[in-house]
Specification:
- By secondary structure, the protein is an all-alpha fold.
- It has a single domain, classed as Transmembrane di-heme cytochromes, Chain C (Fumarate Reductase Cytochrome B subunit).
- It contains ten helices and no strands.
- The N and C termini lie far apart (about 95 Å).
């Protein structure tokens, strides 16, 4: 069996099919389950210190990955200057550390707070663990193998494009370091878990709010009168 083909060609397509089909089914038949199910009322302090760095950090990191995938030439042009290259690498590493700090706080919050722990599901822990693996393998790759932004644009961009254009080239991943192979495989794992988890709320677009009439909130308060003596 060719493990490289299994992990980086067959499994990605399985993950894509599961992500699309289950997400569409969930939106069509279980629309009220598409929610982040906020636990802010149960605990606020740790949620603030965990959610803020995690969400901002992961959003910026994914944005940079997306730019490197869609515009690899722009990454090459940026990295042509040694100063800009180091600036991108150091900024990405700092963002990953910031994301990791927020993720650790969120995990700690779910483990030590009894009320938050009571509302958590096995899928919540599985997703958080998978995200933790992605962050750790990304940090290790950035630390052990220099200038990842350049070879991401040169190797991963063509690989991802080959998957989406139905012309898979898993051989592009075959010679990458094991840590980065794990990082890539874990991305497909997260994609497969996506429709079964709270992450599905990410693609919620509240277009209905644009045409919806104004919501009128009326304060209803019962008045109590003192009985006459």
């Amino acid at each position: 069996m060719n493990w490289n083909r299994l992990l980086f060609e067959i499994f990605p397509y399985l993950a894509l099919v599961v992500a699309v089909v289950v997400t569409l089914y969930r939106y069509a038949y279980r629309p009220f389950s598409v929610s982040a199910l906020s636990s802010q009322l149960l605990e606020r302090r740790l949620l603030f210190w965990g959610s803020l760095p995690f969400h901002w950090g992961i959003t910026l990191i994914l944005t940079v990955h997306l730019i490197a995938w869609i515009f690899p030439e722009a990454i090459y042009a940026w990295n042509a200057s040694l100063f800009r290259l180091y600036l991108l690498e150091v900024s990405g590493f700092a963002l990953a550390l910031w994301t990791l700090a927020g993720l650790v706080v969120l995990l700690w919050r779910r483990l030590v707070n009894a009320r938050v722990r009571a509302t958590a599901t096995a899928m919540d822990y599985l997703v958080l663990f998978a995200v933790l693996i992605s962050v750790l393998t990304g940090l290790y790759t950035a630390l052990a193998y220099r200038f990842g932004s350049s070879w991401f644009a040169g190797t991963m961009a063509p690989y991802l494009t080959s998957i989406l254009t139905l012309r898979p080239r898993p051989e592009l991943v075959a010679d990458l370091p094991f840590a980065f192979q794990w990082h890539v495989f874990n991305f497909w794992v997260l994609l497969a878990l996506f429709p079964f988890s709270r992450l599905v709320h990410i693609i919620t677009v509240p277009l209905g709010y644009v045409a919806r009439p104004w919501q009128i909130v009326i304060w209803v308060r019962r008045r109590f009168t003192q009985p006459n003596p």
